[in-house]
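Task 17 of the worksheet. Students: predict the tertiary structure of the chain below and write it out as structure tokens. Keep your answer in the requested format; marks are given for formatting as well as content.
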Amino acid sequence: MRINTLLITVSLALAFLAAPQAVQAQKDGDAQTVLFDTQSRPTLQFTARNEKIDCCGIFVSYTVMDNDEEALAIRVDHVHRQGWGALTFPERGWLYISASRVIFLIEEGDTSHAFDLPRTDLSDKPGSQPKIDWSMNRWSGIQINVNERLQPSNSREQKFSFVSWVNSKCKEYNIYRVTEYIEAVVNDFPNKLGEFKQLATTLKETGKTQQSALLVSPPADPIKLVAEAAADNKSRLPGDAAGSQQANTVTTGVEFKSNPHAMLYIDGKFERSNTPSKVAVSVGEHTVRLMKCGYKIWEQKITVAEGTLTALKPVLEKNAP
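Model answer:
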């Protein structure tokens, strides 16, 4: 598996050395820039033309999963429709799309809604635009169409809203271009993966790159993580939903009350999409990080003692104009 992963990485690196093709004018809402993580994996930033803020927009990332298969991943919220038509977004995670499967890895919320579906379990048109009026709330998303109803949602239509950073200084853009793009990725993955690599190469060679400390890469082992979540949920007693632990039951850990609210990572692992929150962590030393679009990253090492809640009230510093 190590050899296959190395070959894929080398092939991707060679692709970026290839001569760039003619640059096509990107429409508003298309991928405008490319970002690279510490492993040189590309992420395309879908946003407004001439957007200068590195965290604005919606991000689609290239990765190699734990079965050595190439995939594109996008951060999403799982959409639930209540009986009276109201929408809720109780699970947040990553949607992975590859030639053989579609995976929903949950980082926050009830992990029993996670799935790892081979293409044979999907309908003839596996991806479509959700049958939801997104316009009133400036949402965009994708619907994954499944042959059999998935539990516990009891639905063949798995709807997702794309996650984007929120900042009042971000320019307005056509967010539905991302829906069109991801729909094409789901329905025609091999061709769209090739186009993704070529576009990333072209953007790099023409200087349309950004460096962003806020770039969040998808976990590289979604298959293992979804399988572990499924096994954990299976071992639970009926009625015990994953992630149902209430914040007030945390006795050893960290309590965050930041200004402003921010995304929380502990030891490099995503924990919460927003503060304030109480998080159970093991006794010992940990590195905590808070991130918010438009603000400098706040990071600190802490030591957690048994039976204590370490209280943190950081004030994040705004980026220079």
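Marker's comment: The chain has two domains: 2-229, 245-312. The longest helix spans residues 189-205.
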